[in-house]
Amino acid sequence: MAALIDYLKNDFDFIIVDSPAGIEQGFTYASSIADEAIIVVNLDLATLRDNDRVIGLLLKKVLQDLKLIVNKVNLMILKMDVP
Questions:
Q1: Which candidate in 6, 7, 36, 59 could, as Cys together with 65 as Cys, close a disulfide (CB 3.0–4.6 Å)?
Q2: What HEC string does the chain produce?
Q3: What's the pLDDT tens digit per position in 38-55?
């Protein structure tokens, strides 16, 4: 897979590799070949905890270019919390 990514880098600006949720082997492999990361965040407690661990592991791998996408936002809750 790493050789394929290196080959494709010559022809493409972006190569997106999706990994499963959590920090299992799929995450470990995908993060080992990544130059930057996009983390999809759901606003529930279990997902936020997992994302916190994922971000910590990515920062340890010296991936400083991290982006977050917030998914499944409940606008009614946000409107209630905002004065």
A1: 36
A2: CHHHHHHHCCCCCCCCCCCCCCCCHHHHHHHHCCCCEEEEEECCHHHHHHHHHHHHHHHHCCCCCEEEEEECCCHHHHHHHCC
A3: 888 888 888 888 888 888
